From TrEMBL:
Region ranges (Disordered): 272-327
Binding partners and assembly: Forms a complex with clathrin heavy chain and gamma-adaptin.
Domain CRAL-TRIO residues, every copy: 96-257
Entry's localization field: Cytoplasmic vesicle, Clathrin-coated vesicle; Early endosome membrane; Golgi apparatus, trans-Golgi network membrane
Chief location: cytoplasm
GO biological process per UniProt: lysosome organization
Pfam family, one: CRAL_TRIO_N
Topology term for the membrane: Peripheral membrane protein
Protein name: Clavesin-2
SMART domains in UniProt: CRAL_TRIO_N, SEC14
Keywords: Cytoplasmic vesicle, Endosome, Golgi apparatus, Lipid-binding, Membrane
Amino acid sequence: MTHLQAGLSPETLEKARLELNENPDTLHQDIQEVRDMVITRPDIGFLRTDDAFILRFLRARKFHHFEAFRLLAQYFEYRQQNLDMFKSFKATDPGIKQALKDGFPGGLANLDHYGRKILVLFAANWDQSRYTLVDILRAILLSLEAMIEDPELQVNGFVLIIDWSNFTFKQASKLTPSMLRLAIEGLQDSFPARFGGIHFVNQPWYIHALYTVIRPFLKEKTRKRIFLHGNNLNSLHQLIHPEILPSEFGGMLPPYDMGTWARTLLDHEYDEDSEHSADPYGTPAKEVEKGLSPKSMKRSQSVLDPTVLMHMDKSEEENMQPLLSLD
């Protein structure tokens, strides 16, 4: 075992070896091979190339050198293309702070039976008058940056539960194609985290419609790990034990405290008052989202436009049934 594996338990070390192809004897060589590829992308500013940083990308791509490098390049390219998102990338930024305090994201105290961190989002908590969807994405990315420092989570990964209870059609209409594409590229394509499952619960019909629209932009591996439970919490409990879930998800624990993770990040600054506005950047949220779209994607119509819904066929509806396999 090298010093780079010092934070791993014996069980996780074995998991890294078996599932991720991590070999302590070749670890430094693996890292160097990825680092040597940096010169092939002079258009990207690689702000970090230290051993510990590159290692998390190798783990995220099961030690496939080129795939790890491509993820590393996309990580920095995403930040270059969306500079406004990362100008004030800290927990005390007004928009990020309010999103964090509203539970975007939350994190449960207990890991699941695979050692994965369980993140939770209560979609209806979004206060459109105080922060934007971009702020929510920034808060999630900032939180993942903090959590991924834990080598155990680099190996074991994360699980995400999104509760859509009371999420209104008006709120959903703000989920434009460009905003969704921005989130997909930031979380699926540009961040070194392993997501073992993304669980939707209590989703209304228009979230089903939204999923149908974004499904083509998701990798096959991601699609297989999305579970649409609806009101059937029993199917959720088959995958995540109710003993570690709060009561909102039919679990045995007390209701989730939305400020739990925010207090961890903000510490003594959690209770400090700060001014909030609908747009913390001085630009209409609509324009912020437009300017941040990393690739050309038309946003002239909402994903919930009636014309989209009219063209949903039977096969698309069937695709929205709960999936019951992580493989």
